[in-house]
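Handout for the seminar on molecular recognition.
Each group receives one record of this type.
Step one: identify the two inputs.
Step two: read the structure output and locate the region that could contact pyridoxal-5'-phosphate.
Step three: write two sentences on what you found, then compare them with the reference statements printed after the record.
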Amino acid sequence: MIPALMPNYNRMDLAFDHGEGAWLVAADGRRFLDFGAGIATSSLGHGHPGLTSAIAGQAAKVIHVSNLYRVPEAERLAARLVEASFADSVFFCNSGAEANEALVKAFRRTMADDGKPERYRIICAEGAFHGRTLAMISATGNAKYLAGFGPKVDGFDHVPFNNLNALRAAITPETAGILVEPIQGEGGVRPADADYLRGLRAAADEFSLLLGFDEVQCGMGRTGKLFAHEWAGVMPDAVSTAKGIAGGFPLGALLASELVAKHLVPGSHGTTFGGSPLACAAGNAVLDVVLAPGFLDGVARLGARLRTGLDALVVRHKDVFAEARGRGLMLGLVCAVPNTEVQAACLAEGLLAVAAGENVLRIIPPLVIGDAEIGEALERLDGAARRCKPSALRNAAK
Ligand SMILES: *Cc1c(COP(=O)(O)O)cnc(C)c1O
């Protein structure tokens, strides 16, 4: 018989009772160092006092009022995001897929309002992940996510990632814009070259296209800048973000320049839940931490330390790890044995990490970890690597 909870996930047989900082505690008392952060989402770790008290305090006042009324918490969060980024205006929704939907709708609407309705197509990259709505599986372009769901939503073209010539060659009179992740997450922690991102801006300017970055995973401080595109010094027209923005409370956002944002006039787009007092209180509590002086520099420093440790693991365990890559606290180990084996070995060592494309194990801890957690994680990864030696696998198979 089918379980009451729909079986659309491959869940591990493991449930957590509570968390403390970078640690999750299972119902049976086992403690796990959480270097997956609920897929780069629990940016402040678990049980963070600032976040939990903001949520509890706001819930006691008012949870939801709808967008029929002003929402002061949303106005404040938007103003802070505008102040800290390229953006002039912010739309709040509830997930990464919705943020990308809003971005694509805003791009299409901008072109239509400018008298170019034939320009509705978006160029995306191979290996991308943009979410699971009907349009976003088409933007993602991965055959596995499209299978069985009928005709693809029209309007998305795919080119090899990090290849500017291929992207320029794909521009047609129907192209409205470009949407890429500055660091592909699900695709395997694949960073875009800074030159590539700058080349996208130049191509967008040359052909009067709009440039969008999907920072649902790499944004909100994960790389040591509020947004990963800042490392390349590129100004996008719009950025989608979600995952870490409210520390695990569902919240997504489309940040946009005025040029784009002004086209989402009343009635053009909306959401019932988006930008609620509760979600935005959580978002403001996260910004209190992430925008505190020195915090993002700390993420960059911790990321560099973790990366050095991962590079050393690659040298020590060439038969298990092929390469470390990524930036800040968005890191990945390209595995030389199946990444699911390494993930299972990490679990046995009490370390949570997340598999990704290209046989990568994602190392994406809460942003509030310290040097002690990094040392602990590196030790556990070393233990996991020992468990994964191909010879050990062979023996285990006997
Ligand atoms: C997770 C993710 C999404 C989808 O976010 P949901 O909240 O699951 O809809 C979109 N883009 C990127 C880059 C992501 O990592």
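Reference statements: Residues 95-97, 100, 129-131, 181, 185-186, 214, 216-217, 242-243 surround pyridoxal-5'-phosphate (CB under 6 Å). Residues 223 and 328 are 4 Å apart (CA to CA).
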